[in-house]
């Protein structure tokens, strides 16, 4: 191999600008996923079939189709079908947030089903209405139990945010593609891009592992 590596050709500044956009997309998508994912979990656990089925279909659609298809569909089809025109970053947040919401809903559902019946009975005994029981008993308990899965899903959505480059959102991947084209150094550029994704994701995976080990110790 006669290829000569030259990492000096890789400018970090545009990549950091792209990283900031990726982090903004990830943070906003996680807010949507964490908050609305819980509401979605409650809806798919509804005793009423007419309420439960549409939201179950929503969850299965986002869980069973590729994220890149979802991004492209929302970016191009929503404006055409519903006459809704948003800026590209907002569309990216919407696509990633809906995807994360579906996966978080399943995590919450499992945690809600694991809430001890005694806690709910105690809430009833204290005179809490159903909404108060959800806000003060079910959500805090389910959220704590779901934290490892929510963090894992958050990492996945950060990595999947690279897909928004296909619709010209100037995230880390988009900046990497542009830089590789300008410098004719794709190997060095995408190696640095991969290392940046790794540097952000790896510490969080370690935190998730620590939380899982602590949880197993507490359970045992």
- Count of runs of 4 or more consecutive helical residues: 8
Rg, alpha carbons: 21 Å
Q: What's the pLDDT, averaged over the residues? A: 91
Strand content: under 5%
Q: Helix and strand succession?
A: HHHHHHHH
Q: In total, how many beta strands?
A: 0
Percentage of residues in helical conformation: over 70%
Structural class: mainly alpha
> How would you sum up the global shape?
globular
Question: Termini distance?
Answer: 54 Å
Biggest sheet record: none
Flag low-confidence runs.
none
Which properties best describe this structure?
8 helices; 220 residues; single chain; mainly alpha; globular
Summarize this structure briefly.
The longest helix is centred in the C-terminal third of the chain and has 34 residues, at 186-219.
Explain this structure:
The radius of gyration is 21 Å and the shape is globular. The chain is mostly helical and 220 residues long. The chain is built from 8 helices and no strands.
